[in-house]
Amino acid sequence: MAPQQNGSGQPANGAPAQPPSKSDTATPKLNNEVELGSLPSDPAQNDIMQMARIGDIAGMEKLFESGEYDATYSDDEGITPLHWAAINNQYAMCKWLIEHGAPINKKGGESVATPLQWAAQRCHYYTVHLLLQHGADPLITDSQGYNTLHISTFNGNLMLIVLLLHQGIPVDVEDAYGHTALMWAAYKGYPACVDVFLRWGASVHHRDEQGFTALHWALVKGSPGCIQKIIEYGADRFAKTDTGKTPAITARELNTVAAWHRALFECGYDEDANPILPRWPGASYLLQDRRGFTQKFFFLWPFVMVWATLVVLAGMPVYAGIPFSILVAFSLQWVAQQLLVYAPSDMRTFEKTPWMAGIFAASLSLVGLNWLLRLFPGTAFSDDGTYFWNFLFAVFFAMTAFFYMRSMIDDPGFVPKLNGIAEQKAVIDELIKEWKYDEAHFCVTCMIRTPLRSKHCRRCQRCVAKHDHHCPWVYNCIGVNNHRHFFIYLINLTLGVLVYDYLTYLYFSSISSDASSECNLLSPSLCRVVNADSYSLLLAIWASLQLTWVSMLLFVQFIQVARAMTTYENMHGVNHRTTAATLSSAFTSTGTPLDPAVAAAASGESNAGGHGHHHRHRHGGMLGHWARLLGVDIFFKTARGRTAATAGGVTTIGKRRKDGNPYSNGCWSNCKDFWCDPAPVFGRRETGTAVLAGQPVNYTEMYESPVVSEILRTGGRRRGGYEAVAGEEV
């Protein structure tokens, strides 16, 4: 094979003198397209190679029985049948050839590569794993100096990279010109791969033969995610190459200055790559603990903003109070906005901080103080009937505060991480054995097997068991551990606001008669109310406004609990975790089964469709953003009776599908499972424990859907307690 051109436009047999241009993204790789078409001309040879390509084991057995060929055969270029079986993902053929003595590390073709490298170039990680298990050496290099890890990085296949790293390959192993896999991932613009390599311990200070670091190579593609991640891990922002080029110079030459500056800003640096240091009193405290200071400030500052806005609005005439209160609110928010510059990179927007939780906590505190200092003294002694309402409000307020705090500080049900690389490798090996090594069953961030109904939260950076949603109002995920606490909090909040409004009505009924009836723009009766206690009136209005999003969220939660669904499942579909993923990975592109045993077992399963990836693109601008924060989108979707149902990995939207949810056992049973769970209502539950169909389960350890278990047990006939599914009329 002729030498491929590298990223700089120079032949691969010479090291690049400078980073490649942004437009040149050619990558040295195996020339499989040429090799796939270069079958030997000899008919007998054509037979053995063709049989390996299509996985014809029966034909290969007959050919070997003739004694003319065996598994060690290779053509003039050194290509063996194992090469062809590996590159075409013929798992069963690869296994058969290895068992019959095929040379596992034989180099062949113009690329002078091994079967392992041929399989890795096509991202066939089941075949890659098979070859590795039988002694394939991942550190062998091809004619261009690339080993299996480098070749896998060219394609950005994260699952394959994780598989190889768990085989003990040094993460900083170099190619022929000093480039590491991290450099290649940065050059290609794969932020997820860069993140994996860095978490695995890849060096950001490593230099290639010309002195380029991973940061220089990240500036070629100009991916802000890659640049930012490398800077976060301590890369030298002023590192010079052998020719004296810093990352800033490289960015200017390759026209990626915007991405460079954006990444610097996200990491707390100015355009000259110097730290952005606050110059106000007390800044040293911020610099000592940016994350801790940011969390405390953005939770407590809304207390000042909400109180000041209400006081200004209540203390001035309406024509002046409205503009001045808006000015105060925006001024205080502007101060907070300036501090976001100094926050950690993952907390650069208000919704990623405890800001919204602080707004609610401030509102709750002000309501409680106002009741204690004004409403209770003004109503408790006027009429015997008000004692009951004041007592009721006190109970609802205390319950709201307690369960709000528990929803915020409790572990939502984080799936435990594994203890070390050995356990991770064992999990990967087990998943590959079960034909379930894919993104649906393995989290590459947490490096764990993903339990059913769990989801990786990007905000919490953990997988959450029975994940419902991430709630910015409590600054925490809602999962199996705190879902019931969250629901009780919503119920008490709703009832508490209604009782508070009634107490406010009684309060103004007793004090407004003596107030002045003169004011601007309003009728005399309204003037008396405003003049009596404008602050309490505005606070009651503000509290009542919370009923909008709370009532919608409460409605959605009631429906979802009755259907045994989570918010995520309601929006994106229920993942059955049937063997559909197994089916799709058990066949090659030509339809030939990888493993005959798997194919035989799969033939009796339902036709669930292929496994695919679905990307949701969010639109709607600011209104759409707030609709998602307030839960308006899920409310209208639920109210219309349209839920997403997933079958075999394909998501469809339809009218209350009757076969969409294997976790539902009927409305009554679903509600009983949720509310009569033996876990303590006021205490902490054991992580992951819950009840499903009246039976105790642990969602951190549940990997198989009940519908799959039932199908396997009954031989394809679903029956028993799981016949009733989500979608029933509630």
**Low-confidence parts, pLDDT < 50 over ≥5 residues?**
1-43, 578-618, 643-659, 715-730
Largest sheet: 2 strands, antiparallel
* Oligomerization category of the chains in this entry: single chain
| Strands ordered across the widest β-sheet | 1-2
- Protein structure class: mainly alpha
Number of separate strands: 10
Radius of gyration: 32 Å
Percentage of residues in helical conformation? 40-55%
Average predicted confidence as pLDDT: 80
Strand residues, percent: under 5%
Distance between the termini: 66 Å
In DSSP terms, counting alpha (H) and pi (I) runs of 4 or more, how many helices?
Answer: 30
Q: What sort of overall outline do the alpha carbons produce when their principal axes are compared?
A: elongated
Could you list some keywords that capture this structure?
single chain, 30 helices, elongated, disordered C terminus
Descriptive notes:
The chain has 730 residues and is mostly helical. 50% of the residues lie in helices and 5% in strands. The protein contains 30 helices and ten strands. It has helices at 32-36, 43-54, 57-65, 81-87, 91-99, 115-121, 125-133, 148-155, 158-165, 181-188, 191-199, 214-221, 224-232, 247-253, 257-266, 283-288, 290-315, 318-339, 355-379, 385-409, 421-433, 483-511, 524-563, 567-572, 580-585, 596-602, 621-630, 632-639, 667-675, 706-714, and strands at 442-443, 448-449, 455-457, 462-464, 469-471, 476-478, 642-647, 650-655, 689-692, 695-698. The strands form five sheets. Strands 1-2 form a two-stranded antiparallel sheet. Strands 3-4 form a two-stranded antiparallel ribbon. Helix 19 (355-379) crosses helix 23 (524-563). It is elongated and about 110 Å long. The N and C termini lie far apart (66 Å). Mean pLDDT is 80; it is low at 1-43, 578-618, 643-659 and 715-730.
